[in-house]
Write a structure and sequence with these properties.
- The protein has 10 helices and 10 strands.
- With 283 residues, it is of the alpha/beta class.
- Helix 5 crosses helix 6.
Amino acid sequence: MTPRRVSVPARDGLAISALEWPGPADIAPVLVLSGICRTALDAGAIAAHQGGRRRVVALDYIGHGESARAADPRRYRPEALIRDVMDAMAALHLHGVVLVGTSFGGLVAMAISVMRPAAITAAVLNDIGPRIEPVGREAVVDFIGTDPACASFEATLAWLRERHPPNPLLDEAGWRDFAARTYAEGEDGRWHPRWDIRIGQQAVGDAAGPPPDLWPFFGALATRPLMLVWGEESRLLGAATVAEMQRAQPAMHLVRLPGTGHAPTLREAPAAAALEAFIAGLP
């Protein structure tokens, strides 16, 4: 099923782009929020598994994918991106969603669960929790802020595989697809990130300031069906935090991906199957 590309204006006039796959209006839609260096393209597999059973919408944050770039990098601070998501949800009539949030997208889910509780019916947190390991945060900032500007796709693929955390569940075709969704060929013939590399410092780096206490935000999800996908080699989400999340919310469904770093693509067979089953069991 081919998605349509839609665009809504942010409060400052910048265009927020999204991909939308149609589905019934009388059942909770799926909203996919990517990581801070990912785009709406990552939602294609989720939409394919839904097969039109639910409407699926994936957003490009400002500075990502097909959304507008900001002149002032401070526009990429978390509070502005979260506001954009809530405004886009209102504009696109996304109410009572099943929110699938990877990394930064999961943080956005937790924030929305506090600021607009009725907006989320259920949530899937992909490799993110209320505590972010400092070493993982530093690695993410470094990765986001680097433009390899490789001369070919093959060089770009090699560059990505050398630096990206491990994912033994991705085969050669999977890595090629992942790289194609991460970088795009520019007018100069070189391959560049599908995001503004100034985002890192503003959204998750030092300019974003110290992260708040996110445990109350996580607790706000307690009244909803919740699933956590955890790459057991993740440098952002540690085992102690996962254990504490389980103690806080015993009903949370946990999917473990051994040998996998931050963040799972959700195209890995165990993650995809669990996600499809979780969503199928929702009203």
